[in-house]
Amino acid sequence: MSEPRRYPFVQVDVFTSRQLAGNPLAVFTDGRGLSDLEMQALAREMNLSETTFVLPRDAATERARGIRVRIFTVREELPFAGHPTLGTAFVLRGPSEAGEIVLDLSVGRVPVRFHPSLGPAFGEMTQVDPVFGRVHEREAVAEAAGLDQAEIDPDLPVETVSTGIPFTVVPLRSLATLRALRVDVSRMTAYLSGGEGVDAFYFVTRDTRDPAVRLRARMIFHGGEDPATGSAAGCAAAYMVEHGLARPEERVLIEQGAEALRESRIYVRAARTGSTVRDVRVGGEVVEVLRGEVTLAGEPS
């Protein structure tokens, strides 16, 4: 009879400095020996929006390419996601006080830099340079989102942006509309199934009632409501610089998760060279919540 296989994990809350807020993440710190099916099954077992698996390699490879990490939702593997990137880098950094942790994700090499001056656990990831996609008709988006067309901000476009994963940014006039959203997910996904690879709207409003907050946001998808969506926040960072809501290199705050009772604070910025928005960075704090170990019997499935 084979020995049981033991896999330690750390659970953290991302985009918050308070435990039991932000977006939770489970990080398996050494996933070697797990099959693809087992990684997916463990992500379902953890039942969080994402679970990551670190796959250590030799030091020379990690210096050249970064630390290999795979990201799973309860349904599928993702090439990239924001809060799993930041949270995994935090766990890998540990007490080392390293200034940078580089991850090798399925989208490529993603560096996460730590800025102690902004908080003891403040990290900032650099995302893939943005690709601006389709500008949508307000009437069609309003119908798909269950909104009155007048509730969409008339001064800003409804636009698809990708910094690794595409989202359609939907600007709303008011905080009241954002809070009152009742999205029919099946109708939304039917509208978005047009070939851009977008799964969800990222609803934002400039009506934050707090001058320190540039945008309030919500992301509602097939799994419920996401407390913090780092990949979508990167799209919003590019969108803000493109449309004059933030200056190039200005770090601004997006709040998300209040309606999900897990408030999150996401800090974003992006650069601009001529007409090109680039160097999108998304940051925030991370806090550890618990540690544990999964014991699996038998050989990999």
Would you write up a description of this structure?
This protein is α+β, with helices and mostly antiparallel strands. It has 2 domains: 5-126 and 286-296, Diaminopimelate Epimerase, Chain A, domain 1 (Roll); 131-283, Roll (Diaminopimelate Epimerase, Chain A, domain 1), CATH 3.10.310. Helices cover 21% and strands 39% of the residues. The chain has 7 helices and 17 strands. Strands 1-2-3-4-6-7-8-17 form an 8-stranded mixed barrel, surrounded by 4 helices. A hairpin with a 3-residue loop joins strand 10 (158-162) and strand 11 (166-172). Helix 4 runs antiparallel to helix 6. The two termini are 16 Å apart. The relative contact order is 0.19. The model has no long low-confidence stretch (mean pLDDT 96).
Task: Explain briefly what this protein structure is.
The protein is built from seven helices and 17 strands. A hairpin with a 7-residue loop joins strand 15 and strand 16. 21% of the residues lie in helices and 39% in strands.
**Largest sheet descriptor:** 8 strands, mixed, barrel
Shape: globular
**H/I helix tally:** 7
CATH structural fold name of the largest domain: Diaminopimelate Epimerase, Chain A, domain 1
CATH class of the largest domain: Alpha Beta
Please state how the strands of the largest beta sheet are arranged side by side. 1-2-3-4-6-7-8-17
Structural classification: alpha+beta
Rg over C-alpha atoms, rounded to the nearest angstrom = 19 Å
Oligomer description: single chain
Order of helices and strands: EEHEHEEHEEEEHEEHHEEEHEEE
The number of domains is 2
